[in-house]
Amino acid sequence: MPIWILLPLVLIAALYYWHGLKTGVPGGGLFPAAPDAESARFARCSGPVRKTCVVDGDTFWYRGTKIRMADINTPETSKPECRDEARLGAQATERLIALLNEGPFSLQPGGDGRDRDRYGRTLRIVTRGGHSLGTTLVDEGLAEQWQGRRGSWC
Question: Is 47 exposed, middle or buried (CB count within 10 Å of its CB: 0-12, 13-18, 19+)?
Fold first, then answer.
């Protein structure tokens, strides 16, 4: 087979793979495996009973399960280290509420093989249309890609 026929196929496959690495979604999110089927109305968490609400920019409760977004880290809201972290954390929280309320989404496994973090939270990548909502927060400057540890926002 002539190379000019294979070259476009190889380039498409490489782009598909690269996009998957960038988004953290298997297959790059270009061809979602199934339609987004999860949805609820989210608000900020308050009080001791938490069923479906947002804790902060990377943690929320969904149908009684506490979920930590596995692909990002956002500024802390409960014990921020500085005023900038508190401000960004509040913005990330409000933006996550808006993103979750925009429509159906999917919960994908975290990708590193762990189902839960050391605090017992379920680790998931939240996607819509095959694209990570966490990546949206990163692109908007309200989160950073998860590096295995928290970064400083101060």
Answer: exposed
